[in-house]
Amino acid sequence: MVPELQKATVRIQQPERVMGIIRSLREQGMNKLQVISDFDMTLSRFGCNGRRCPTSHNILDNSRVISEDGKKKLKDLLHYYYPIEIDPNRTPAEKCPLMVEWWTKAHELLSQQKIQKGDIAQIVRESDVMLRDGFNELFDQLHKYNVPLFIFSAGVGDILEEIIRQANVFYSNVNVVSNYMDFDDNGVLMCFKGPLIHTYNKNNSVLQGTEYFQQLSARTSIILLGDSMGDLTMADGVPSVENILKIGFLNDKVEEQRGKYLDAYDIVLESDETLDVVNGILRYILIET
Ligand SMILES: Nc1ccn([C@@H]2O[C@H](COP(=O)(O)O)[C@@H](O)[C@H]2O)c(=O)n1
């Protein structure tokens, strides 16, 4: 059905159930389909040649516009809070207030750096960010078949939009909800606009007033792409889900996190820097119908 599911990186706890969902997605067809995806470490790569790739926050943190003191403070925050973010022994409810603390402190530090809106494109160009292999096919196919792609990110919206713009895939079917910067009249960063989105509140609570999912109420087939346990709630605002396929990229601490990911995601992709499996499933659902 989908040859890519034979890849060594693929783990599935309930193969029969998953094949059933994929068959249903195909039967329902492209007019019922929407894709909801996380951005950092899901559409973008986690690593390359043994080195970590940056998140949209890290792109700013490591850039030339941040002072050495600012860089150190941002790195200290990352080293303190990231292990908490991915700790399999703490619940999302326990992590929530700590994530608010992290994002708030990081956004305050960034807002003290006099970052210029006009520098964003160059900052992204000079960064080591990479989209996952196969991103072109993913974005092109979804655009070609008019399938909405909703990018729900706790990263920095201005940065991730620039990444997909520079990759020439920011098509009209792509919508982004994320943390956006607020610039003053001179184009200098003042603060971040609310509501704050962090790893564990990616649900309807931060989508109030957007009406996005209501407008797509006929799109009852969902493919959800994420890399954290927090991404599992991204489709909670969809009014009537008939079929949902949850695909999780397990990038870090693979052994420790495997059990939880297999329980939560239908398909788990372990240390797989490509979108091969997603593209294979989409090819089966879209092209051959
Ligand atoms: N100051 C920060 C805060 C968060 N991060 C990482 O960004 C990721 C969130 O973005 P998603 O697109 O995955 O929702 C998250 O995994 C954090 O690790 C950061 O690098 N710096």
From TrEMBL:
- EC class: hydrolase
Cross-referenced InterPro entries = HAD-like_sf (IPR036412), HAD_sf (IPR023214), Pyrimidine_nucleotidase_eu (IPR006434)
A Gene Ontology molecular function term for this protein is: nucleotide binding
Q: Which Gene3D superfamilies match?
A: HAD superfamily/HAD-like (3.40.50.1000), Pyrimidine 5'-nucleotidase (UMPH-1), N-terminal domain (1.10.150.340)
UniProt feature coiled coil, ranges: none
Keywords attached to this entry: Cytoplasm, Hydrolase, Magnesium, Metal-binding, Nucleotide metabolism, Nucleotide-binding
Provide the GO biological process annotations.
Answer: nucleotide metabolic process
Q: What is this protein called?
A: 5'-nucleotidase
Organism of derivation: Mycteria americana
Specify the taxonomic lineage: Eukaryota, Metazoa, Chordata, Craniata, Vertebrata
